């Protein structure tokens, strides 16, 4: 199975042909418009089936697939709470449905997939990777119980760790490792977190302002039968500030 994750920077209808050439079974597209608003257009494409959610009708996250794949939407609504002696706050408890932006599906009877585009309001401490930290804690039982591919735009890298935030990038990698999940890119290229040689994001679409912020985390049992490729700057920069993450694996 081939899965592609790509932050298209909006206007996916105009950019779809470029992804079609990659022959993906599943497309995960961040910052895409709501396909339910354009049924006549999307029914003409090869990936005629989709799930989508977002706070903005022009900028959400979508999973696109064809008729040969039977994906089912996961409606996880798990909660998690933290107990701190002497602290009474409603913010120590959260629900999966309040976190942004995660879209989960089952891709087989025994495997799940979580599409990721981390977000967060300007006034939130738990922005971006903090949202993923909350998501992991709330859904540990689901993720550990059934092998899950977690893939997308995380807007995060260990180079931005802040030591007074226990939800930083490095801590999340530790959590995933303890559950036997690893980054496919780092395993394939034998690179350390924060020392990535191949970027996935180019700030202001400039090659000299590059970062690695897109990831695919897989359980150990899938890693050995998986491959990963990253799109090239010159092939995608005219369409987006991100290049696609392309993974292939066998169950």
Automatic annotation (TrEMBL):
InterPro entries: Endo/exonu/phosph_ase_sf. It comes from the Bacteria. One of its GO terms (molecular function) is exonuclease activity. This is Endonuclease/exonuclease/phosphatase family protein. Keywords: Endonuclease, Exonuclease, Hydrolase, Nuclease. The keyword Hydrolase applies. The keyword Nuclease applies.
């Amino acid at each position: 199975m081939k899965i592609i994750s790509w932050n298209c920077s909006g206007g996916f209808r105009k950019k779809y042909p470029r992804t079609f050439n990659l022959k993906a079974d599943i497309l995960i597209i961040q910052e895409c418009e709501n396909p339910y608003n354009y049924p006549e257009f999307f029914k003409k494409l090869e990936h005629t089936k989709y799930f989508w959610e977002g706070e903005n009708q022009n900028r959400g996250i979508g999973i696109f697939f064809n008729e040969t794949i039977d994906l089912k939407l996961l409606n996880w609504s798990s909660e998690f709470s933290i107990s701190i002696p002497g602290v009474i706050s409603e913010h120590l408890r959260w629900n999966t449905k309040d976190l942004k932006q995660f879209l989960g599906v089952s891709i087989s009877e025994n495997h799940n997939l979580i599409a990721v585009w981390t977000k967060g309001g300007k006034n939130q401490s738990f922005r971006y990777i903090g949202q993923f930290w909350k998501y992991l804690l709330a859904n540990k039982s689901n993720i550990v119980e059934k092998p899950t591919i977690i893939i997308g735009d995380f807007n995060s890298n260990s180079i931005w760790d802040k030591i007074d935030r226990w939800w930083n990038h490095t801590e999340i990698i530790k959590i995933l490792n303890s559950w036997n999940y690893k980054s496919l890119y780092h395993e394939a290229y034998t690179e350390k977190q924060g020392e990535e040689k191949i970027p996935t994001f180019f700030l202001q679409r400039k090659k000299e302002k590059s970062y690695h912020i897109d990831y695919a985390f897989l359980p150990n049992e899938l890693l050995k039968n998986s491959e990963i490729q990253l799109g090239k700057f010159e092939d995608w920069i005219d369409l987006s500030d991100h290049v696609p993450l392309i993974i292939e694996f066998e169950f």
